[in-house]
Amino acid sequence: MENYKKILISAALIISSVLTSELPGQITVKLPRSTPETEGVTSQGIIDFLNAVDTASRVELHSFMFLRHGKVIAEGWWDPFGPDNKHLLYSASKTFAATGIGLAVSEKKLKLTDKVFSFFPYSQPDTLSDYMKEMTVQNLLTMSAGQDPEPRSMGAGGDWINTFLSTEPVHKPGTVFMYNNMATFMLSAIVQQVTAQTLFDYLLLRIFQPLGIRGIDWDLNPQGINLGMIGLRLRSEDLAKFGQLLLQQGVWNKKQLIPKEWVKEATSFKIESKGGSPQLSKDKNDWTQGYCYQMWRGRNNTVRLDGMAGQFVVLIPDKDAIVVLTANARDTQDELNLVHNYLIPAIKSNTSLPANQGLYNELQKRQSSLSLKTPVSKTTKSEFEKRISGKEFSLEENNYQIQSVYFAFNSDGCSFGLKRDNQISVFKAGQGSWKITKSASTSLLSPSRNPSSKSIDANYSSPQTSFIAAASYAWTDSATLEITTRFVEESLGPQTIAFRFSEFNGGVRITIEQSTSGGQARGPAGAAPRVQLRGSMVEIK
């Protein structure tokens, strides 16, 4: 138990120092701020948007930013997510890969008509199909590589490039839209081949640093190549800056970071697309408006960066506006509908509207009080709380190698400790609120960047052992303690552990049940896998 006490003291010191000092990688160059009415937008429209978010059962937003004329006019983060937290982008990463290609083209390191196989003489299979010999860089950009299905199961130690080149297209490249994650990986590999830098390093001096973006990362595959299609983590304001750069045709602080011609080419319609709900008519489906270069066309003449579970940067050039959304949405069309139905109609004029201080104050209040739901207590306390508080309990042998657990309750909330593989992690959890732990290192199913995973959706960078965790707890009945944890920079969904206490031979028995979204968006029914662990708890004296 002394080990748990030492970690609790250390955690308190860490949290204190972070709250009073500059966070590592903190955004130091911010976008200018303004008010909605000053930029021709109604505060009421944005309030209506936030009210609609509250009732959108299949949309869980983590953040939003609304820009008009290059200025932030509204912004908010749903606690425990915050402006200094990076967020998983999933396929919104793809647009950055396309930008790397555009910059390499402008530097005459390649042409869009270059054949894909020609960049990799060392990774080619014994024979190349005729269609593979025809495939160009532009075919990769427009998701028209012709492979159906796309290459999968790259493996932890295999040659991803060889696997891609070995997968024969079934359609003539350039003729059929077919979403292909590995096509984007090949864009990243091509940038690395022609520049002798990873895509991330290549963009660092050209895009990230000029935009004032700091402290970010992009996952690598086992060959040391940025994934390209996923794996980039940025803050909401980072995304807003990049979106504004595109809206300004590649100009930032009077410097042309991306050629104007490339921005125009990359955001224009290139090929008929498909996706979204098949039940929707084309005029209501944002995935059937056409595809650009690793971006989608949308309704209302919009263009967007688009990542799984609703990571969006929506460019609205007709209105000189941008909307940034991060989320864990089960229905991403519903999420985009919020933009089309509320935020775009809120734009009324290219010039200022009369100020409305009352509405603006209401908007500010709404933005500052956004929060994701926490577990709901049906009883304020349990008789078990006093019995288990301040004590460490050993657990019988189990498949999760959990050796002991520790609980401590006070007026500030609950501290929950877990020892596994001789490593201790302690979480702070609030009752009806989120508490942040900035050095969480383990849980029943903690986020993992597993280099041995065989899924192309895995994160292939070095395994990480420390995470920012936010937790909340509730007594859902007199014998059930429920702790919900969110790893705010490493997963989208919550991880919930229910501890069910019961009398057993004069002591306490615990059943541990975990419900987790697996760190990604939940399925159509919102279901999540559940695992159970039972064992007798014995107090360690």
Q: What is the topological layout?
A:
Blueprint: H1 2-19, H2 43-55, E1 61-68, E2 71-77, E3 87-88, H3 94-106, H4 130-134, H5 137-141, H6 160-166, H7 181-195, H8 199-208, E4 217-218, E5 232-234, H9 236-247, E6 251-252, E7 255-256, H10 260-266, E8 296-298, E9 302-307, E10 311-316, E11 321-327, H11 332-343, H12 357-368, H13 383-388, E12 391-395, E13 402-410, E14 413-420, E15 423-431, E16 435-440, E17 467-477, E18 480-487, E19 495-504, E20 507-516, E21 530-539
Parallel strand pairs: 15-17
Antiparallel strand pairs: 1-2, 1-11, 3-5, 4-5, 6-7, 8-9, 9-10, 10-11, 12-13, 12-21, 13-14, 14-15, 16-17, 17-18, 18-19, 19-20, 20-21
Describe the structure in brief.
This protein has 541 residues and is an alpha+beta fold. It has helices spanning 2-19, 43-55, 94-106, 130-134, 137-141, 160-166, 181-195, 199-208, 236-247, 260-266, 332-343, 357-368, 383-388, and strands at 61-68, 71-77, 87-88, 217-218, 232-234, 251-252, 255-256, 296-298, 302-307, 311-316, 321-327, 391-395, 402-410, 413-420, 423-431, 435-440, 467-477, 480-487, 495-504, 507-516, 530-539. The chain folds into three domains: 2-12 and 373-539, Beta Barrel (Lipocalin), CATH 2.40.128; 31-85 and 235-370, Beta-lactamase (3-Layer(aba) Sandwich); 88-233, DD-peptidase/beta-lactamase superfamily (Beta-lactamase), CATH 3.40.710.10.
